[in-house]
Amino acid sequence: MQTQVAIIGGGPSGLLLSQILHLRGISSIVLEQKSRNYVLGRIRAGVLEQGLVDMVRAAGVGERMDKEGHPHSGFDIAFHGQRKRIDLEGLSGGKTVMVYGQTELTLDLYEARDQMGGHIVHEAENVTPCELETDRPYVTYEKGGNIYRIDCDFIAGCDGFHGVSRQSIPKSVLREYEKVYPFGWLGVLSKTPPVSSELIYNHNDRGFALCSMRNANLSRYYIQCSMNERVENWSDEQFWEELKKRLPEQAAQEIVTGPSIEKSIAPLRSFVAEPLSYGRLFLAGDAGHIVPPTGAKGLNLAASDIYYLSEALIDHYKKKSDQGLKDYSEKALKRIWKAMRFSWWMTTLLHKFPQNSEFDNRMQETELDYLFSSEAAQKALAENYVGLPY
Predict the structure, then answer these.
(1) Which of 78, 158, 179, 220 could staple 13 via S-S, CB 3.0–4.6 A?
(2) Catalytic residue positions, numbered
(3) Is 81 among the domain residues?
(4) Do residues 172 and 215 lie in contact, with contact meaning Cβ atoms separated by under 8 Å?
C-alpha cells in the first residue's frame, strides 16, 4: 500500500490527525494494534481545553460534543473545611473547558473517518517503522498471518507510551526525563448523578480526592492510594466510605452512591522524551510524554501536538515548506514542558506525600492559603487550566 502519512496508533490522537489531514486532501492510513471495541472500551478522562474544543469543531466532529458535552466555567478546591471556586471564565478572559468523555470523542472520530472512507487497520501486529532517515520511509505490519508494507512520506507515532514509535529512535539520540510519584489514583465510575455540577479537587490529611463526572447520570470519583494497593481489595462500600471522609462535609452528605461499573488504579508519573522527531518519524501524545491526571492535561497535550504536526504537514504539501516539520519538536516541547510544570505543581499542591516533613506539610498548606487569598495566583491557575495558547 501507499499513502502520504502512515499513522501508528488509532486512539484519539491518530484519528484526529487523520481527520484533519483528510480535510486538506492529504492521505493517511491508521494502524492500530487493538480492535475497535477494545479502543472504545478504554475509560479515560474527559476535560477538554478550549483549544481542543476548537480543533474538534474545525475537524467537523464537534456536533455531538456541543450537544451532549458540559461546558465548565470553573471548579472548586477544598481543604481544611474551606472550599474555593476558581472562576476559570472570569479569570482567563472568557475561556472555559468542556467535560466530554475521551471515549465519546474517539467514537465521534471513528464515525467521521468511516463516513469519509478513512483507512484504519485494526489488530495490526508487529508494526515496524523502517528507513526513517531516508526520504522513502515505510511501515510493515502483520495481520492474519500475512506481512504488509505501507510506503509513505512521513510516519506519525501516536501509539502511546508502550508503543513502537519512540522505541524506533536510537538510544544515542533519545533523551528521557521521568518522575514517578509515590501513589496512584483509585477511580470509580458509577451511574449516579454527580455531587456537584463542577469538579471538586480535595486536599485532605487522609489523601487527595477528586469529584468529576461524564454526564448528568454518570459520575467519576478518585481517591489517592498507595502504589501497592490492588483494585480487588476495595469493595464499592469501602471506596464510598473513604471518599466521604475526604470530602467537604456538605458534599459528603449529598453524594449519591451506587454500584461501580468500572474500577481501576492509575499510577502517576511525569515523563518527557526529546526530541519528538527523528528523520521522517514524528511522535505525538503519550508516545512522547505522560503527565499526572491532576489538571487534565494528557489528552489536551496530545491535541496540541496534533495541531503543530498537522499544520507542519499541511505546509509541506500545500506550501512546499518544511520549516514547520523542522520546528515541530522544539515548538511542541515548549508547550509540553509548561503543561508538565502545571501538572507537577497541582499534584504537589493537592496530594499527601508520605515522605513529607512537617515543614513540607506546612508549606503545602500555606501555598493553598495563598492561592485562596490571591487573585493573581488564581489567574495563573486558570490560565494554565483552560490551556495555554498554541
Answers:
(1) 158
(2) 72, 201, 293, 297, 385
(3) no
(4) no
